Structure formats: structure tokens, C-alpha cells
Amino acid sequence: MPPKARYRNRIELLQGTLDLLVLQTLQWGPQHGYAIAQAIRANSSDVLQVDTGSLYPALHRLERQKLIAASWKVSENRQRTRVYRLTTKGREELVSERTRWSRFVDAVAGVLNKPQPE
Amino acid sequence: MARKDRELDEEIRTHLEMAVRDRVDRGASRADAESAARREFGNVGLVKEVTRDMWGRMWIERIGQDLRYAARLMMRSPGFTAVAVLSLALGIGANTAIFQVVNAVRLRALPVSDPGSLAAVSIADMTGARGNFNSRYPTVTNPIWERLRADQRAFSGLLAWNGTTFNLSRGGLARPARGLWVSGSFFDVLGVGASSGRVLLPADDHRGCAPRAVVSHGFWRNELGVRPDVVGSMLTLDGRAVEVVGVTSAGFAGVEVGRTFDVAVPICSVATLSGSAERLDSGTDWWLTIMGRLRPGWTLDQASAHLAAISPGIFSATLPSNYPTVSVDQYRAFTLRAEPGGTGASGLREDYGDPLWILLATAALVLVIACVNLANLMLARASAREREFAVRLGVGASRGRVMRQLLVESLLLAGIGAACGMLLAGFLSRTLVSALDRDGQSVFLDVGTDWRVLAFTMAVAVLTCLLFGLAPAFRATRAGSLQLLRSDGRGLTPSRERFALRRALVTLQVALSLVLLVAAALFTRTLMNLAAVDPGFSSHGVVVTSLDLRSLRTPEAERYALHTDVVNRLRAIPGVRAAAEVWVVPISGNAWGNSVWMEGRDGSQVTDALFNRVSDGYFATLGIPFVAGRDFSDRDTTSSPNVAIVNEAFARTVAQGNPIGQRVKVEATPSRPEMSYEIVGVVRDAKYLSLRQNVEPVVFLPARQTPRLGEWAQLVVRSDLPPSSMTAAIAQAIGELNPGIVVSFTMLKTQISDTLLRERLMATLSGFFGVVAALLAVVGLYGVIAYTVARRTKEIGVRMALGADRGAILGTILGEAIWLIGIGLAAGAALALASGSAARRLLFGLESYDPLTLGASAAALAGIALAASYVPARTAARIEPIVALRTD
After folding, report:
1. Does one domain contain both B337 and B374?
2. Backbone angles phi, psi at B258, to 5 degrees
3. Is the distance from CB of B284 to CB of B670 less than 8 angstroms?
4. ipTM of the complex model
5. The pLDDT of residue B144 is above 80
6. Spatial separation of the C-alpha atoms in residues B474 and B492, rounded to whole Å
7. How many CB atoms lie within 10 A of CB A110?
8. 3-state SS assignment for residue B451
9. Residue B110 located in a structural domain
10. Residues whose CB falls within 8 Å of the CB of residue B397, separated by 6 or more in sequence, listed in order
11. Would an 8 Å CB–CB cutoff place B19 in contact with chain A?
């Protein structure tokens, strides 16, 4: 029982952020799961390690919420890959999520940077 | 495997391949790349599982998965599955079947509008009612009915009815139809409409009416071939043409449960159909049963109070002029009352009420035993699967998940069991209903599955499922996974408590099955006792022949000669050994009684005696020997002195000595003054009303000495011919006399064995249940003992290695079995004794605590239970110490 609980906790922690990162990554064009993970990693200068145990559930959840859509494509290595792309609804969601995220960051920063009363 | 699962597999495979390729591109070796990629990815199975969770329809999938798993498991242990499903099917099937019949007979409301507001109206205490009683239900006379209808205010409508049999044929063999005399308000009060034409209306029911008939939908469909021109067509009822005015709606089968109707005619038409209006005016002909629909706002109590208030007026106004003086005061004091009537009248309910409840209780016990058996099996399996559970819990399954798996397994079992049970129920209830059929009197019961039966079965199935599914699941998962993994499943503490439960369950099974076996034995012995009763006469080769002579239109004065002629014609048939006329055929359910005393003897007690009218040769026909005196002869006529023959019981209790030459006095009746008869003969005792009853005093009067001879004749004919050729010969002989005479036949033997129907039914069904219960108990016991042996293999091995001999081991194991059986039998015996009184009224020739029955049942059960325990005990005794010690 304990191992499973651990996984769930991690999903919970990352959930909002990971969704935003996935949507943001897909903004530049359709990608498959591995590429999304690599992109997030590269774009964060290896700071954010995307856990597959969170990535795939997130992808499938976003797909179910119709924020992204999946299709099968054959890659240059003649390999069938499942490719995700942003839907219109996903684009709108990305915009509002970005807004919320920057407000969140500003708010957190405001708290952290508040001059200490002396 | 769904497409989505395959796609997810492929997606993850691609992911891994890409990760490997990236690493290889960066210079890693293939093997390093693969293991690094895999490490980075994590637990593939878990990722899949969490991802699948996102698909939304997961619970259906999971249930599907659970079901597939459960089905595989069931197929892997067919023995367990078969026993489990069979126990459930029997338990649920038997319960449903019997409940369906109980429901149809006792609980279900009539298929009429708003049955809840219907009330049955009857006289509270009929003591002192004199005259002819023509129904098995509480009745009133037509004058009372007419008066009540006019006086009452409690009901928005009242109806009266009486069941009868009409003959549809114009001559030759009778074609009986189930008839109803109904008041004009009958259909209106019940709220029953016509499917074509119209129903009878109050306007159809008036003195001097032309007879009109309404036929039932079933009769129209089965007998009239759905003819479209039925309205306006003519039916022959008892030789009279009657116009059909309509067909009732399809669902309506009359107000009598167990007996449908074919033709309903207005009460007034009794005048036309019987040729005289006597019955309508008679104050001593009790034949109409009354029901009413309460006025809105009226309760039964208010209605009863109102009826009680108007009763004195009704009964003083209708007091018949010929009412015997001794009973006049009782007549005036009659009080009408109202009772719930929504479930209709039913003779089945009276005859089979107790037996059906007992059978239902029996079936419920079988279900309990089946459940206990299943619980036991499931417990056994749960312990066998402890390791499986431990592993599943260990690799991360939640307790709820494991519980759900177990619940799905038991639900699947319960579902299959319930489905088989429903199939079995349909078959059993059809068998049960057809078993209630008597010769010529088919029982009509609508035992179709209705919501009540469905709810009942479902509740039983779900409860059973919860009982045997969740308890083991709960227990199995309570222990921590480590503890379960560590224990080697044998001889250590975690299972002891559970094993005690299993032993308790087996003891309970043994106890309950003993109760059922005792019941089975009691009912079987009752049937045997009744079948062995000597009725005092011989029914072998005797045909009861009923003749409707009305087509001859014989004047009353010439009927004596006609009857004699008929008897003589039958006696002349080759192969006929004897024939005689009789009014009341023995053990036919009919009876005729009155009060008698010895004339000219001071202090002679007034006693109730039974009566019969027979022609000469009756006693010879039925093989009843004379003890003293003579038979009637053709010289005993209306002009000769009144004579009588009595039975030994009469000589013993009424005459208290040789009665030949003495005179017996018979109390006045509405139709006859006080009479006196000279006793000329005494015959051997024979049963009159039923095989169960003791022989009562009987007075036989000569058939030719009756003041009025009707246009009906009933004869007993004994011959050596096979029944079919005999009835053909009789029909031919009667046809030669007049083709218009209607004839019908019953074999006396069949008629008598039909009276044991209830006993046969009880014996068969309780026997079946008893055997099933005993088998289940034995299977349970075998399971527990075998399990003991398996658990103690090591211990036994050690004992043997230390020098215990095989006999001692056998003794130890059998000793445990004997303990379980002994406690079970003791508890069962106590239960059987305590519950026996419920069956007392149904038994014959033995008491419910009959020690022989109890002892024999207990011995039989102990015998098979010991035999079943001997098999695993012998296995234990054959254990090789080396082998036993080597395991684990």
C-alpha cells in the first residue's frame, strides 16, 4: 500500500503545474510523450524532471478534458508514435492558466519579498 | 483487452525505445541504455494503472476485470463452483417457488380495481343455521341477501356470488363448465369490464329474468375458439339455451383463488335453469357469499358496527316459516360483520395455508443451510487463498480493492445461483400447482413472477451474497499482509478463531438438517399411515356414475321406477358385479348430518349422527359386511314402514346394544318433521367423511323411501372390467335408455387417493428438502474434517514418528467428527421438538415428538455423516510420517 500512496502524492503536487507545462510545450506544435518530457527538461535546464508516472496520467487526463487531442503518426524512424496537439479549448485554457500562474508567482513573490518590519 | 490498453502499451513501448535510442546516440552501450531508461521510467505496470485511472469509465472496466478474474477462478475449481451454485439454486429456487404459490394463494390481492376497499360480509357465528349449505365459504340465503342489499348504508356496492358447475353438453358424457351465480352488481362492484360485449348489469338480475351469460376470457379463448360472434350466441347450460352477452376482461378469474370461472349468470336465472324459483325464496338454502365495496371514508369497524345495528331487522324479517323451532332464537340473534376481502375467497387457502407456511419455513431452512454451506466453503477457500491476498496486499493493492474482488466473486456466484434458482423456481412452482390438481378439478393459480416474488428472491440472493461473501473477505484481509505471508497456514494462531467458526457452522448445518429430516420422516409416515388406513370398504374396481336425468322430464311419481330401471340396466351389463344407488359417496367430502336419539328410551342422549341414502345392494357393492339384520329390498318403499340400517359405531354409542327392532328418532329439519325409523340391520364400520376421521355413528336410509326423488342419480358400480371399457359400457347402456341423459364418471379409488393430495405433497417436498439438507450438511462436514486433516498433517506426522499407531490417529480424527455430529444432533433434536407443534395438525397416526422418527432420523444422519468423515480420517491414518514432516 505505501508505494502507491507515494505516487499519488507526487501527482497531486505536480498536477496544476504539469498540466500548464504540457500545454505550454504543445503550443509550438504536436509532440509525443517522450518529446514532451525531454522538452520540459531541456527548457528548464534539467531542473524539472518529469516523472513518467505523472506525465502519462496527465496526458490522458488532458485528453479526456478535450484540452489536447491525440493521433497516431509514423515518425522518421518509421515508428508509430502517439502524438498530442493542443485543441482550441486547450489554447484558451493555456491562456487562462498562464494568467493564473503569473498571478500566483507574483503573489508568492510578494509574500517572500515583503520588507521585514523593523 | 480493449484497444485502448493496447495503444497505451504501444505508447509506453515507444517511449522506452526512444529513451534507449537517445542514450545509445549519446554513446551508452545498448544494455546500459536499456536499464537506465527503464530505471528512469519507473514501474511500467503502475504507470499504466494510474494512467488507466484517467480514462473515466474505470469502474466498469475494473468490474469487468474482476468478473473475468472471478470467472476464471470459478472454472478452475469446478467442484467448488458446482456445490456453491447448486446450494444457492436449490435454496433460492425452492424458496421462490413456494413463495410464489404462497403469494398466489394467500397474499395477492384480486385482480380487480382497488381491492383494498373490498370487504367480505358474513354472519359472525353460524351456530343454529339450519338447512342446505352449498358452499365452502360463509353464506347467506337469498332472502337475507335481498334484505341486506336494501337496508345497508356502509357499502357503495354489495355483490353476492356462488360457485357451481354447469353442464354444457346436451346429452351423453357431461361437459362440465365452472359456473358462477352472480348478483347484477357483481362486475360493477369489482370494477371488472368486458373485453367484448358487456358484463352483467343490475338490470339483468331481477325476478323472472331471462337467463343471460357472461363468459370469461379464458373460456372464450380455450373453449369457444376465440369466435368473434360470441356476443349474441347461445350456450347450453344444464340443458337450457342461454344467450351470451359478453366476455370479461382478460385478467379476471373470479373472486375465488385457485378456481377460475367459465360462465357467470345472474342469480335470478336459477329459476329458469333449475326449473323453479324455490331457491330464490328459500330461507334455508345457504348459498350466497357476499362482498362489498366500502363507501369512501368508511372503515371495516364502522361497517361492522352498521351491519350489527341492522342485523336484528334483517333476520326477523327473513325468518323462514319452516325454521325448526329449536333454532329460531339463534337465527334471530345472527349478526353480520365485515372483514377484509381484497384477497378473495379461497378453499386452497384453508386447505393449504398451514402446509404452505410449513413448506416455506422448510425452504427457508434449506436456504439457511445452503448459505452456511457456502460460508463454510468460502471460508475454506479464503484460508487457501491467504497467500494470494497477502501477495496482492504486498504489491500495493488496497484492502478495499481485495474486498471488492471477493465481493464480485460472491456476487457472480450469487447471480448464477439466483439465475439457476429462478429457472428451478419456474419448474418447481408449475410442478407444485399441477400437484394440487385433482381429478376433474384443475387448480387455477396465476403464479407468474410478480414484483413481490422478484423482490423476495433478489433480497434472498443479495443477503446470501453479503453473508457468505463479505464475512470471509473481511476476515481474510484483516490480518496484516506480512503476518499472512509469514504464517505457513497450518497450526498457528491466526486461523484458530476462524476454524472455530467453521466448526460452529457445520454443527449448525447438522442441527438444521436433522430438523428437516425429522419433518420429512413425520410427513412421510403420516402419508403411509393414511394410505394404510382401512376405510372399511373396498374401492377396487368401483366407478362412481352420476346421471342427470332431467332430459327425460319424468313426473315425480314415476321417478322411483326410473331409478330402479337405471340400476337394473347397469347390473345387466356383462362384467358388472354389483351396482347400487347412493346419495353420499364415502370420502367424497360431502356429508349429511342431524341429531338422533333412541325412541322410547328414557335418558337416551341426543347425539349427532351422519346420514346416507342407499339402495339395496350398496353394502355388497362396496364390500361392507352385515353384522346383523338385513339389507334394504325393493319392498322398502314410501308405502311401507320407515326402516334404517346403522353402523357398528351407532350400535355402540347411540343404541348401546343390539339395535335391531328398535326405533331411532331424527330431529326435525326445515324440510321434514321429526321422523322415526325402525332399525333392520347393522353393518361393519366404514369411513364416511375422510380417512383421518374416526368412524362416527351413521344411519343409512333406503333410497326408495325418500319423500321426493330428484332428477339426478348417483351410482356405485363394481366390475372386473378395466375402467375405460366399463365407463364406455355404462355410457352405452344409459344412452340406450335416453340419449339426452348426461353421464359423468369418477373412479372411487382415484377420488379417495385425491384426498391424500396434501399429505403426498408434504411428504414429497419435505422429503426432497430433507435429503438436500442432509447432503449439504454432509458435504460441509466432509470439508471441515478434510481441512482438519490437511492442517494437521505435520502434527500427525510427528505423532506417528513418535509411535502413535494408525488406529489412534483414525480415532482422534473421527472423535472430532463425532463431537461435531453429536452437538449438532442434540441441538437439532431440541429444535425439532420445539418446532414440531407447528406440524401437529397435519400429522396422522403419530405425534410430532414421535421418538422412533426422531431416533431413526438422527441415526440416519449420524450414519452418513460418520461415513463422510471416515474418508478424510482414513487419509489421515495413511499419512507417511516422512512425507508429512518433509512438507514445508
Report:
1. no
2. 95, -10
3. yes
4. 0.82
5. yes
6. 19
7. 9
8. helix
9. no
10. A1
11. yes
> In the predicted model, is pLDDT for residue B671 greater than 70?
yes
- ∠B156-B160-B161 over CA atoms, to 5°? 145
In this structure, are B808 and B839 located in the same domain? yes
pLDDT, mean over chain A:
80
Residues from chain B contacting residue A2 (CB–CB below 8 Å): 396
For residue B356, the one-letter residue type is: L
H-helix or E-strand containing B436?
helix B399-436
Specify the pLDDT at position B461. 67
pLDDT attached to residue B607: 86
Give the C-alpha separation, A49 to A40, whole Å: 8
Grid cell locating B475: 476476515
Confidence of residue B465 (pLDDT cuts 50, 70, 90): low
Q: Residue B391, class by beta-carbon neighbours within 10 Å (0-12 exposed, 13-18 middle, 19+ buried)?
A: middle
Q: How many domains does chain B have?
A: 4
Nearest chain B Cα to A31, which residue? B15
pLDDT tens-digit series, residues B326-338: 788 889 999 999 9
Distance of alpha carbon B237 from alpha carbon B647, whole angstroms: 40
Q: How many domains does chain A have?
A: 1
pLDDT digits (tens, 9 = 90+) for B271-309: 888 777 788 888 888 899 999 999 999 999 999 999 999
Lowest mean pLDDT among B179-193, B460-474, B722-736: B460-474
B241 lies in a domain?
yes
CB B37 within 8 A of CB B28: no
The whole-angstrom separation of Cα B454 and Cα B431 is 19
Whole-angstrom Cα distance, residue B374 to residue B84?
6
Is the pLDDT score of A8 beyond 50?
Answer: no
Report how far residue B156's alpha carbon sits from residue B291's, in angstroms, rounded to the nearest whole number: 11
Q: Which residues in chain A are contacts of B7 at CB distance < 8 A? A: 82
Cell 350466497 found at: B288
Distance CA B412, CA B408 (A): 6
**Model pLDDT, residue B776:** 80
Instruction: Tell me which of B7, B13, B15, B399 to substitute to probe the interface with A (most A C-beta atoms closer than 10 Å).
Output: B15
Mean pLDDT computed over B637-642: 89
Of B170 and B479, more confident: B170
CA torsion angle for B529, B534, B538, B544 (degrees, to 10)?
-60
How far is the first Cα of chain B from the last one, in angstroms, to the nearest whole number?
38
Does B507 lie in the same domain as B397?
yes
Identity of the amino acid at B158? L
Give the residue from A51, A52, A83 with the most B CB atoms within 10 Å of its CB, the best one to mutate: A52
Does B196 lie at the interface with A, CB-CB under 8 angstroms? no
Instruction: Taking residues B585-608, report their average pLDDT.
Output: 82
Q: Does the structure show a pLDDT above 60 at B888?
A: no
> Is it the case that residue B764 has pLDDT exceeding 50?
yes
A41 interface with B at CB cutoff 8 Å = no
Do B309 and B441 share a domain, yes or no? no
Q: In this complex, do A82 and B14 lie within 8 Å of one another by their Cβ atoms? A: yes
pTM of the predicted protein model: 0.69
Domain of residue B34 covers 3-55
Separation between Cα atoms, residue B878 and residue B857, nearest integer Å:
32
CATH code for position A77: 1.10.10.10
B108 pLDDT higher than 70: no
Domain-embedded: residue B543: no
What's the CA gap between B17 and B12, in Å, rounded? 9
Flag whether residue A14 sits within 8 Å of chain B, measured between CB atoms: no
Residues B373, B329 within the same domain: no
Report the alpha-carbon distance of residue B770 to residue B262 in Å, rounded: 40
Could you tell me if residue A117 is inside a domain? Answer: no
DSSP state string for B772-834: HHHHHHHHHHHHHHHHHHHHTHHHHHHHHHTT--HHHHHHHHHHHHHHHHHHHHHHHHHHHHH
Calculate mean pLDDT across residues B842-861.
88
